[in-house]
Amino acid sequence: PTECFLSQPEEKQESTVKAKRRKKKKISDILEKSAPKPGVPADLQNLLSQHFSENRSVIEIEELKLSDSCFLPANDLTHSFSSYLKEICPKWAKLRKNHKEKKSVVMLIICSSALRSLELIKSMTAFKGDCRVLKLFAKHIKIKEQMSMLEKGVFHIGVGTPGRVKALVEQDGLCLNSTKYMILDWNWRDQKLRRMMDIPEIKKETIDLLEMSIIKLCREGSVKLGLF
Questions:
Q1: Architecture per CATH, 35-227
Q2: How big is the CA angle at 226 (ends 193 and 117), to the nearest 5 degrees?
Q3: Cβ 188 vs Cβ 116: under 8 Å
Q4: Is 71 left (phi over 0), alpha (psi -120 to 50) or beta?
């Protein structure tokens, strides 16, 4: 009888572990099989409202709202990165030619990691032409190096992570007054099927960057937001 009693909890424990394993696999299966849904401006609006609803007044939240005119057409998942940029910025050649200011970029592209930044830089070859692109992430690059490069030369596009871009703006290494476009790498998923806004740290840093200066510039009409 003693053996019988001992074997029951063990069986239960095993079956619970198996059930947990099965459940975990099932969730990832659903994510893999679910059809990708392209991000739209309303998704970003809802994200900002949810983020600020707990600690902001109704008036403060209203000041952070963006009208539809602040947004560029969103990627419908049919575009390559170059073809999307060509669609939203047909006058890029002229903008690139006229840009002479140091410590600034015309286009800012925000994504979740250094590796993803490099992928996007490679995939925009057909769009960028001979313009200068600056890597704005922390991996293997010191912030002082980036500040020095921005101070000495003229760059047209900046591609990087929200944390490093935010730090550069805070330390007066990057000025956003010449920025016309800010593109969020919204739809791309990593190996764990997470989008940039599914990663808590990246989500917070992106929202902080938007709140710090981008939302104000969008409301003034000088910056347009795009969701790729």
A1: 3-Layer(aba) Sandwich (3.40)
A2: 55
A3: yes
A4: beta
Question: Biggest alpha carbon distance in the chain?
Answer: 88
pLDDT in tens, 42-72: 999 999 988 888 888 888 888 888 999 999 9
- Class of residue 154 by CB neighbours under 10 A (exposed 0-12, middle 13-18, buried 19+): middle
SS (H, E, C) the chain: CHHHHHHHHHHHHHHHHHHHHHHHHHHHHHHHHCCCCCCCHHHHHHHHHHHHCCCCCHHHHHHCCCCHHHECCCCCCCCCHHHHHHHHCCCHHHHHHHCCCCCECCEEEECCCHHHHHHHHHHCHHHHCCCCEEEECCCCCCHHHHHHHHHHCCCCEEEECHHHHHHHHHCCCCECCCCCEEEECCCCCCCCCCCHHHCHHHHHHHHHHHHHHHHHHHHHCCCEEEEC
Give the mean model confidence (pLDDT) for residues 111-118.
Answer: 96
By residue count, the chain amounts to 228
Can you give the pTM of this predicted structure?
0.82
- Backbone phi, then psi, for 130, in 5-degree steps? -100, 20
Q: Which residues, in sequence order, are CB contacts of 157 under 8 Å at separation 6+?
A: 105, 106, 107, 108, 109, 124, 128, 131, 132, 133, 134
